[in-house]
Automatic annotation (TrEMBL):
Signal peptide extent: none
GO biological process: tRNA modification
Organism classification: Archaea, Methanobacteriati, Methanobacteriota, Methanomada group, Methanobacteria
Alphabetized InterPro entries for the sequence: tRNAHis_GuaTrfase_cat, tRNAHis_GuaTrfase_Thg1, tRNAHis_GuaTrfase_Thg1_sf
Keywords linked to the UniProt accession: Nucleotidyltransferase, Transferase
UniProt cross-references to Pfam families, sorted A to Z: Thg1
Name of the protein in question: Guanylyltransferase
Single GO term (MF): magnesium ion binding
Domain tRNAHis guanylyltransferase catalytic: 1-128
Length: 246
């Protein structure tokens, strides 16, 4: 039956930069089950960061960008000989397992017995991109993080006053300026919202100084090491940023 595995030899294009995008499946229901703080829950954000760090430790990508239930991964090397089926299945299952493992840490009241635990899954897709395409892609995802932030604050601020249907009616066809005005009238200045909510969170390797001691020369020494770094105050993602983290 090997001949029926018609997609098993599908591989990513040679020479392309590869991005993996993963999304949580049915996480709107999960967020209700977890009783997440709206529009942003720091416990959930930390959980997603831990998933990203687990992935970084296992596969050593160049950069990971996460917001909401979305994870975007820029690979530094392409494993599994670039087989698309393998990339999608292994990465999605790894993130699902990591999320489940970390769920207990950040949400101790979530039902985790064998009888009550609800399976959690991510979907995954492979995107082959050019060098410039990488910059444009991550700029696009960061813009989406900002739109989610603005829309989320607008929706949940109005939900304190109106029903779900009335809130949707109020927000219908509102542009960005209208949403800013709605929030400003209710005491929310979007420029004061934490950067991780507006721009997403980045995970990459950063050079740090390590203090040490040279017993031969009997002196203190400082060496440089690359360490996995979680950036909760990401700058705008552009060509200069990606040049710095290469």
């Amino acid at each position: 039956m090997k001949e029926c595995e018609i997609f098993s030899n599908l591989r990513v294009p040679c020479g392309s930069k590869i991005v993996i995008r993963a999304d949580g499946r049915n996480f709107s229901k999960l967020s209700n089950d977890l009783k997440l703080e709206r529009p942003y829950d720091p416990h959930f954000a930390n959980l997603m960061v831990n998933v990203c760090n687990d992935f970084f430790m296992e596969f050593s990508p160049q950069f990971i960008f996460t917001f909401s239930d979305e994870i975007n991964i820029l690979l530094s090397e392409v494993p599994f000989n670039g087989r698309v089926e393998k990339l999608d299945s292994v990465f999605a299952s790894f993130m699902s397992g990591s999320f489940t493992k970390n769920l207990i840490k950040y949400f101790k009241d979530y039902p985790t017995s064998e009888q009550n635990i609800k399976p959690i899954s991510f979907d995954s897709r492979v995107l082959p991109l050019s060098g410039q395409g990488i910059v444009e892609y991550f700029k696009n995802r960061q813009n989406e993080a900002w739109r989610n932030c603005l829309n989320g604050y607008s929706y949940w601020k109005l939900r304190k006053e109106f029903s779900k249907s009335h809130t949707v009616e109020i927000l219908n066809k509102k542009n960005s300026s209208d949403l800013h005005e709605i929030l400003f009238e209710r005491g929310v200045n979007m420029s004061e919202i934490p950067l991780w909510q507006r721009r997403g969170i980045g995970i990459y390797k950063k050079e740090v100084s390590i203090n040490g001691y040279n017993p031969i020369k009997n002196e203190k020494v400082v060496s440089k090491r690359l360490k996995i770094y979680t950036d909760w105050e990401l700058p705008m993602l552009n060509k200069e940023f990606f040049n710095q983290i290469q």
